[in-house]
Here is the input.
Amino acid sequence: MRGVLDRRLFGAMMLASVAGCSAPVEVSGTNRDSSYQQKITRVLVTTNLRAPDLSARQNEGFVRADEIRQSLAAAWGPLGVSFEVVDLNSGQGVAAAAAQFAPQQILALTLQGYGLYKFVVDSYTVDASLTDVSTKRRVWRGIQRHNGERPHAP
Here is the structure.
């Protein structure tokens, strides 16, 4: 249960930082285009948060697309932001989703790296990048780290 809560909290903090809210999240290397003045209104979120060299069970340690949907609904729903989440690891295609959804921005969440402790994902880093569709220009980027807690020896 703790792992699911950690992943949901990480997802919520990551997405809140993109939306411009201040949240106590370990974000480094953020880069925002100060000339970009568009509001986040219609976002296609693509997730690529699996490691091909890990087992299916180990990959369960990363935040999931459905957890990101829940975080977005809570964070962006009250603000009137429309969104669609596409899990690239499930075979969904970005081009088809973009054609159907017609987003104004695309938020790409990509696994950048991970750490294992006793064969379990203990930490991971996500590269988050927001691109404006009309200009095809990246307007925000952040690197976010999730550090798990290792179990203590008895």
